[in-house]
Write the structure tokens for this entry.
Amino acid sequence: MTKYRIDKATLIDWLGDGLELAVLDIRSAENVGYASPLFATNLPTERLEAELDRFVPRRAVRMVLVDGGDGTAEAAVSRLRQAGWTDIHFLEGGIPAWVDGGKELPTFDIPGVPFVTKVREERQTPVISAAELQTLRDQGTDVIVLDTRTLAEYEKAHVPGAVGVPGAELLLRFKDLVPSAETKVVVSCAGLPRAILGAQTLIDAGVANAVSYLDDGTRGWTDAGFELETGRTASYGDPSEEARQFASERGDSLSASDGLTFIDRQTAERWNADPSRTTYLLDVRTPEEFARANLAGSISSEGGQLLGVAYRTIAVRGARVVLVDDLLGSRARIVAHWLARRGYEITILLHDFDAEERAAA
């Protein structure tokens, strides 16, 4: 197994050579916590063989497994090579070797944090504190809080009265939830990243409302001495025709200067079969929509999550990413607007899922 072992210097070189590379931290989620090398995708040993094809869809891709220094990565490499993974390696010494000599682990779990912080600073995204929000409510101001996390996260705890709207759904659901341009809009999440991107998405799309993000989200709310609410107390429904038209217009405004690339289904299928490049077909609609109709080879990857934690799905650096959406494409446009700015190679595939559902009925 010596020839499959690499040292820290080699891994650092590989990270900067521009070629496709997957780095997987195979420690348990509890041990990873909020620190993982190089923003590696966490795929614990016990799930590795069952789920690796989802995270690394091309078996010839260059891949490095990182463990806690206990030898589990070396053993996993042996098994996976026998299973057909041809370019897989392990980091000698694991995490202890990585941190030795000053290579510290990040102190946060979301690699998009530096990017989002830069967005906030460059765009001067408006912010409101928990105390200021409560004052507006006490004064009877027309204000709505949109929580951009997943609905599962929203149900666990959210700012009282907030409406659950995962980030990529913001434009599609906006007009039905916020019919008046006079309503003040506050975007929230658990901390900062998804709230900032959600608020800036609405601003970049040119909505007429005053938009801000809630400083430090639900954490900021409780730190200010306020209590959170649980359960799915309010979320979006099926979009009206007016909401769809609004999303179409604002989506065009959002992506006017993005230079988006659109492909057809045949191109996506050809890319997916390409043995020399990794391609992710990520369906950014809701999980419920995906369950009703989807394209073969695609993965349900809720758009709002991609905005904040893309690395949890896109494990291969340098891969092609195809965002799959319905014909309106508002969710794909939001995700592309931000992921392209983070260096991902993004294309969009729009498909008439409604026609498929009608045909199947």
Summary: Residues 113-240 form a domain with the Oxidized Rhodanese; domain 1 fold (CATH 3.40.250.10).
